[in-house]
Amino acid sequence: MKRLPKILAIVLALLAVFYLCAEAYPKQKQASDAIGAESWQILWDSDGSASVPDAPPERVLRSPDWADMREDTDPPPRPAGTQWAWVRIDIPQLSWTIPAVMMQKVHGRDVMVYTEYRELFDAHRQYRYSMNNLLLPLRTEDSGGSLYLRMKITDPRPGIVEEVSFGSFYQLLTEYLNQDLLDVMLGGAFVLIGGVMLVCALFLNRAYIKSWLALCFVILSIGLLVISYSPFLFTLYPAYGGVLQRLFDVSLFTLLPSFLYFFQAIFGNGYRNAVLHLSRIQLIYSSFCLLLLVGNVLTGERYFSIYYLLTTTVLGVLMIADLSVLLVCTISYSLQRNKDAWIFNGGLAVFAGIGVFELLRYYATNELYDLYWWKWGMVVFVISMIVVLGRRFAETHNQVLEYAKELERFNNELQRSEKMEIISELAASVAHEVRNPLQVTRGFLQLLGERSAVSDKAYIEMALDELDRASGIITDFLTFAKPGAENVKPLSISEEFRHIEGVLTPLASIHHGKIMLDIEPDLYVKGNSSKFKQAFINMIKNSIEALPDEDGKIAVRATRENGEVVIRIRDNGIGMAPEVLKRLGEPYFSNKTKGTGLGLMVTFRIVEAMQGTLTFDSKKGAGTEATVRIPESSE
Fold first, then answer.
1. Within a 10 A sphere around the Cβ of 613, how many other Cβ atoms?
2. Measured on CA atoms in the order 625, 613, 630, 424, is the torsion positive or negative?
3. How confident is the model at residue 31 (pLDDT cuts 50, 70, 90)?
4. Could you give the C-alpha distances from 476 to 185, 229, 540, 583, in angstroms and in order?
C-alpha cells in the first residue's frame, strides 16, 4: 500500500505524456468543407535571378515545360546551374466568405507567392531555412485561376510542397495555429522551468550545485531547441529567423556537455572513466563548434558547407556515440539493482531509442526526414532526470537526519560515559573509606549480641542485616568502579547458567514463576565467572520481580550469531513504559520502591568490560526482553 501513490503518480505522468504525444502528432485532415489540391506543377527557371517580379512573367505563364507533381513524386531533373523554380497550383471554385489557402512545409528559400495579376507573399530570408508553412487570404474572383510560387530550392525533395488546402480563412487559421503552437508552448515550459531552477541555484548548498546547474542547462537547452526548431516562429517572425537558427545551434552545443556532466555527477565516471573521457571530448568539440558558429557568422556563411558538415553530420555521429555509451552504462548500473539507474535508464532508453532512430532515418533519407519525435523523447528523459535528482536530494536529506540522530546518540553516550566515570571515581573513594568502619561496627555489634539479653538480640540482628545490606551496596559500588574482571578465563555458557538457575529457582517459585533455559552447546565467552553470574542474576532477578501473580515465565536462550554469543532473557511480566526504558542503566534510577538503581548500572559495566552490549525491548503489559551480545571465545 505504501507504493500505491508512487505507482499512481507514474501511471498518471505516463498517460499525460502519451496523451500530449497523441494530440500533438500530425493527424490526417478531418472531414470539413476545405478542398485539398492533390497535384500541382513545377517549372525550373533557367533564366531565374534574385530580382523580385511583381507578377509571374509571360515566359512562365506560357511555358510548355511545366511538369506535373504530387506530394510523393520527385521533381524533374534540375538543369545545370539552376536554383530557382516555379510551382503552379490550380485554384478551385472559392465559395467561402473569406477564402484562403494553406500550404504546409513548402521546402524552399526566398518564397514568393502570386496569382496571375498580383503578389500575395514575399519572404526574402538572409539565413538558411527552407521550410515554410503559409496561410494566405484569397479573393472570390481568384476562383478558377492559379497560384504561382517562386522559390530558391537547395535540396530538391518529393513534392516540394507537402499539402495544399483551400477553405475558409478562419477554419484554416485554427488549423494553422494548432500545427506547431504546441512545440512553442512545450519549449517555453522547459525554458521557464530551467529559468526558475537557475534562480533557485543561488540558494542551494554547494554540495548540490553542480548536478543542479547541469540539469538546469539541460532543460534550458532542450526548451530552446524545441522552440527554435519549430517553423511556427520562422513563419510569424521571419526577420528573426537567423537568430533562431543560431539559438538552435548554441542550444545543441550546450546540451550534450551538460547532459554528460549531469550523468557523471549522478552515477560517476563509468567503466574505466569512459563517461569522463567522453564528456571531455564532447566539451572540447562543442567549444570548437561554437568557434565555427562565430566564424560562420563573421564570414557571412561563405563556408557554410564545411560548417554544416562539422556541426551537423559529425556532431550527429558523436551524439549517437554519446547516447550509445550512456545506454550501455545505465544498463550495467541497472543490473546492479541501482533504482536511480532504473529510472534514468528508462528515460534514456526512450530518448536514446527515439534519437538514434530519427538520426539514422534522417541520414538514410539524405537529410529529408523531418525530425518530430525527439522532443517527446526529451520530455520523458527530462522527467526521469528530475526524478533521479529529486531522489538524490531526498536521500541526502534522510542521511542528514540519520546523521543528526547518530550525533545525538553519540552525545548521549558521551555524557553517560563522562557521568559514569565521575561516579565510578567517587564510588571507589567512598567505598574504601566506608567499608572499614562498617566492618569494625559489625564486629562490635556481634560482641554486644553475645552479651545482650534475648529481648535485645532481635534489634542487634536487624542492625547487622542493615550493615550487610550496606556492605552489599558498597560491593556494588566497587564493582561499578572497577568492572575489569580479574581471573579472566573462557566460560561455558551452559555451566554458568546451570549455576544461575540453581540460585534463582527458589526465588522464582516464590513469585509463581519458572525459569526455562535453551542454551546451544559449546558456547564460550571470556570473563570472570563471579562477575558474569552477578550480571545475569541481576537481570533475571529483575524479571522475577516483574512477573505476574500466576503463570510467570522467564525464557533464557543463548545462540551463536556472526561470531558473537547472543543471550536473550524474556519474561511475560508487567513490562516498562518507553520513558522508563530510556533511563535504564542511569545511576540511581530505579522503578522499585526500595531499589537503588545500582544493580543494572553494575550489570551494564560488567557487560561493557566483557566488550559486549546490552539492550532492552519492552512494552507495557507485554513483558521485557534483554539482549546481551558478547564476542565468542574458543574453549
1. 14
2. negative
3. very low
4. 79, 84, 17, 19
* DSSP 8-state assignment for residue 412: H
β 513-519/552-561 pair status? parallel
Separation between Cα atoms, residue 395 and residue 318, nearest integer Å: 34
Cβ neighbours around 408 below 10 Å, total: 10
Cell numbers 504525444 label which residue? 21
Residue count of the chain? 635
- Quote the cell numbers at residue 351: 530518448
CA–CA distances in Å: residue 375 to residues 133, 243, 351, 369, 387: 20, 21, 9, 15, 18
Give the whole-angstrom CA distance, residue 74 versus residue 153. Answer: 13
What are phi and psi for residue 501, nearest 5 degrees? Answer: -65, -45
Question: What are the C-alpha distances in Å from 225 to residues 108, 335, 561?
Answer: 22, 33, 60
From the list 616, 617, 613, the residue with the least C-alpha distance to 631 is 613
Q: Determine the Cα angle at 12 with ends 7 and 15, to 5°.
A: 125
Instruction: Tell me which DSSP letter residue 72 carries.
Output: T
With beta carbons less than 8 A apart as the criterion, state whether 552 and 573 touch.
Answer: yes
Q: What is the pLDDT of residues 563-602, one digit of tens each?
A: 899 999 999 888 888 877 777 766 656 665 555 556 777 7
Distant-in-sequence, close-in-space partners of 632: CB < 8 Å, separation ≥ 6 = 523, 524, 525, 560, 563, 564, 565
**Residue 481 near residue 428, CB atoms below 8 Å:** yes
Report the 10 Å Cβ neighbour count for 128.
13
Average confidence (pLDDT) over 496-521: 85
Going by DSSP bridges, is the β-strand pair 513-519/131-137 parallel, antiparallel, or unpaired? unpaired
Q: Is 152 exposed, middle or buried (0-12, 13-18, 19+ CB in 10 A)?
A: middle
Report the side by side order of strands in the sheet with 564-571: 513-519, 552-561, 564-571, 623-631, 613-619
Specify the amino acid at residue 276.
L
Cα–Cα distance for residue pair 190/255, rounded to 1 Å: 13
- Could you give the dihedral angle defined by the CA atoms of residues 364, 369, 372 and 373, in that order, rounded to the nearest 10 degrees? -20
Nearest to 107 by CA among 161, 70, 148: 161
pLDDT of amino acid 383: 82
Closest CA to 233 of 280, 291, 185: 185
* Alpha-carbon dihedral sign for residues 383, 386, 387, 388: positive
Q: Strand, helix or coil at 315?
A: helix
Three-state secondary structure call for residue 514: strand
Q: What are the cell numbers at 288?
A: 570548437
H helix or E strand, kind and range, residue 476? helix 454-481
Q: What is the DSSP letter of 620?
A: T
Least Cα distance to 617 among 609, 626, 608, 629 occurs for: 626
Average pLDDT, the chain: 79
What is the phi/psi pair of residue 595, to 5°?
-80, 150
Cell of 241: 529567423
Question: Rounded to an integer, what distance in angstroms lies between the CA atom of residue 607 and that of residue 612?
Answer: 5
